């Protein structure tokens, strides 16, 4: 290895995305990622539990951001409005559409990664429901609002990465929430 260079985690992630794009996720090894980044496998495992986690790094930040936002919403807000307000904060974490598109393309290519994404979304819904319960929202209402919020996020995110219009993620989240409210209002 050459002299030390900063941002090992970022270099590893960049190398992984390059290799996933060139060879595919399943054909890429941790050794190849580390070599491309000019680092060792040991360094890779100091930053990521496995090669899947390169794709899901930052999910804790997203979850923490959403939970804090739910907790910070005024107590008078209805559960779905608290979740809606929290979803508006997603744009502070997810800013780079091109990166999100590349990431999603890799995830969509492999059943294992699609399953991992569903697990992460389920964890997000559970965390949102827990935050709502801490606000005093009854169990059923908290679960429904959280699951609906994750569905709204998923639909808006898919529209955003499709890139078929110039709307930002925040606008797409608001549209999806409005549509959900219209559908449930009858």
Description:
Helix content is about 75%, strand content about 0%. It contains 10 helices and no strands. The longest helix is centred in the middle third of the chain and has 24 residues. It has about 190 residues and is mainly α. The protein is elongated, with a radius of gyration of 19 Å. The relative contact order is 0.11.
Q: SSE layout and pairings?
A:
Elements: H1 8-23, H2 30-37, H3 41-47, H4 53-56, H5 59-72, H6 79-87, H7 97-108, H8 111-134, H9 139-162, H10 169-185
Helix pairs in contact: 1-2, 5-6, 5-8, 6-9, 8-9, 9-10
Quick structural overview:
It contains 10 helices and no strands. It is mostly helical.
- Output mean pLDDT: 93
| H and E order | HHHHHHHHHH
Class computed from helices, strands and strand pairing: mainly alpha
User: Count the strands?
Assistant: 0
Radius of gyration over alpha carbons? 19 Å
Assign a percent range to the helix content: over 70%
Identify the overall geometry. Answer: elongated
What fraction of residues sit in β-strands? Answer: under 5%
Largest sheet: none
Low-pLDDT residue intervals, each spanning 5 or more residues:
none
**Number of DSSP helical runs:** 10
C-alpha end-to-end distance: 64 Å
Observed structural traits:
elongated; mainly alpha; 10 helices; 186 residues; single chain; 73% helix
